[in-house]
Specification:
Elements lengths: L5 H13 L2 H8 L3 H15 L4 E4 L2 E4 L1 H19 L3 H8 L3 E6 L5 H11 L4 E6 L3 H10 L4 E6 L11 E16 L20 E3 L9 H10 L6 E3 L4 H9 L4 E5 L8 E5 L6 E9 L5 H20 L2 H11 L5
Parallel strand pairs: 3-4, 3-5, 7-8, 7-9
Antiparallel strand pairs: 1-2, 5-11, 6-9, 6-10, 6-11
Length: 320
Amino acid sequence: MERLEIRHLRALCAIADTGSLRRAAALQGYSQPALTTQLQRIEHYFGESLFDRSSSGVEPTPFGAEVVAQARDVVARVDAMGPRSARRASEAGRILTLAVTNTPMLPGLLLRFRSAVPDHAVTVTSVYSSAEIVGLLEEGDVDVAIGVDYPGQELRHSSLVAHRGIVTEPSFVAMPAGHPMAHRMEVGLKDLAGDAWFVTPDDGAGWPGVFYTACQVAGFQPVTVHEFFGDRSQLHTMIAEGVAVALVQATFTASEGVVVKPLTGTPLWCRYLLAWRIDSVSEELIDSMYRSAAAAYRDLTVHAPHLRDWAVRTYNMPEK
């Protein structure tokens, strides 16, 4: 095989999605032997195996996972192509459904998107779990979504859905202003081993597992954990009163009695991403939504001096 074709990429995505050559063959309209032969040719093209075979099915190798991720992106872009005039006509005046996880960028995103695309109404559904968001996109219940994932645990979805990273930000810690570590420029995660923690529940993308793994790497296991997901003002009050500390988004604003500090070595990161069902929205709409989200996030940093200071120190950025 001299070159890859779109059909080869679709086959790889189908195999990864179904975990079975037999089911992938049926989905793609091939016989199983034909798909097996095609996969062998594709693997010969790359020079190594892309899937591990077992009695229970197939699973991408580490290199295969990279190839499949790139294949999804290419297939999504190809499927989104089409006559612009036809797409504009079909989209004009429609109501766009947007699912959003826990993010403070939502108000600014909506304001900018409605200004940029005034002929589109938007209805918003708050969905905490990014895994649930993927399910809604797969089923066609929503058109677009803002979700999260973590380095090394990228959000998984079928070729019906595409995604694009908006920003990858470090996780900071919010603590009482009277905390012994509150005067430090940065705080080591291990220095908080004896503290109680507020931890948000499972988000379907890897949290709180990534938090507990980071604690383990730092050499401790949190003794007291309060699961909390609710009103932000209430969280501020409980942190200020010394009930517990909390891992927070880097744009989390400090308040009277609460300081926000970077973690030494930046052991935790979170990526916000824009995801969409490729047969539901055009690239133009996605570009508008992406630009609106990115601008909304930049505005949030204006009110987060701890994030700007961290960026200046970490990346030698000029101060403004």
